[in-house]
Amino acid sequence: MSIRHGLLALLVGGPRHGSGLRTEFAACTGSARSPGIGRVRAALGRLERDGMVTREGVDEAGRTLYALTEAGRAEVRAWYARPVKRDGPPRDELVLKLVLAAETPGVDVRQVVETQRRHASEALHDSVRRRAEALSRPPGCPGEVARLLVLEQLVWHAEAEVRWLDHCEARLLRLDLPGDAGTEG
């Protein structure tokens, strides 16, 4: 997710300070996806430079408050209106690891696949459990609906990863590669 657009979207609700935005970002997207405060401050600086936000005083604790400008509001509307592009393969550590494992002497790529599949299956189980817990309670606020959407994305992502790893294993078996593809001798 674009930190830039995430911050702009959060500011639609009114002026906020950097650490408050970081906290809200974490609450909406899950703490594992929360940017560090340094990244938030740097993004706010760039948004201010680009005319998307403006400083609007300080709060009772002396923290700088940021508010959307009209240009910022227009950018948020435009962001919601355009699709997220999927132009090329994402920079995915797992893909890189498997590609390199397949070409590295002494590495059993099938073992790398199996290790990742176990991890993805555990993540899937955990996400399904957390989603079931969230669904057992009626949503009391928009934040709970947002959390449910994040949990559902985690379930779908883990399911897709397990399916892809199953495909990778089948491909490796069809290619009849030895267990340690890179072993010479």
TrEMBL record:
One Pfam family, short name: Vir_act_alpha_C
Gene3D superfamilies: Winged helix-like DNA-binding domain superfamily/Winged helix DNA-binding domain (1.10.10.10)
Residue span, Transcription regulator PadR N-terminal domain: 7-77
Residues covered by the Transcription regulator PadR C-terminal domain: 91-172
Name under which the protein is recorded: PadR family transcriptional regulator
